[in-house]
UniProtKB/TrEMBL annotation:
Residues 63-98 form the EF-hand domain. One of its GO terms (molecular function) is calcium ion binding. It comes from Pongo abelii. PANTHER family: EF-HAND CALCIUM-BINDING DOMAIN-CONTAINING PROTEIN 10 (PTHR21847:SF1). It holds the Pfam family EF_EFCAB10_C. SUPFAM superfamilies: Dimerization-anchoring domain of cAMP-dependent PK regulatory subunit, EF-hand. This is EF-hand domain-containing protein. Transmembrane segments: none annotated.
Length: 120
């Protein structure tokens, strides 16, 4: 009984502070950029997040246009210029731009590079 109470408290704490999303984002960025010094890179990301929070500046974007295009092209293996909604949703999750609980609705439209850039 005490264990489930502790587990519930831990889960609520992680949810309240969005720790799972933060760890997911940090892991995704680390695997995407593969820096030579991963610890220093993670410290740098966290510092930039802290500065953004303290100054009220919007969440910093760590991907530039070429990174977004490269990611899209990896998913568009056939070179058609589109990806499926499932691929799109998974990419947003991988980048930490949407959570598991977030319900993205498939509007039936294909996802083009322009749409992907706009959303990312």
């Amino acid at each position: 009984m005490e264990t489930s109470s502790r587990e519930l408290q831990a889960s609520e704490y992680l949810e309240k502070h969005q720790i799972k999303e933060l760890v997911s984002y940090l892991t995704s960025a680390l695997l995407f950029f593969r820096p030579e010094k991963p610890r220093e890179y993670l410290i740098s990301l966290l510092e930039r997040l802290r500065i953004a929070k303290v100054t009220g500046v919007a969440f910093p974007f760590f991907m530039d246009n070429s990174n977004i295009v490269a990611m899209f092209e990896m998913m568009d293996s056939s070179g058609r210029g589109t990806i499926s909604f499932v691929q799109y949703k998974e990419a947003l999750k991988t980048l930490g731009l949407c959570t598991e609980d977030e319900d993205l609705q498939d509007d039936g439209h294909i996802i083009t590079l322009d749409k992907f850039k706009e959303e990312v």
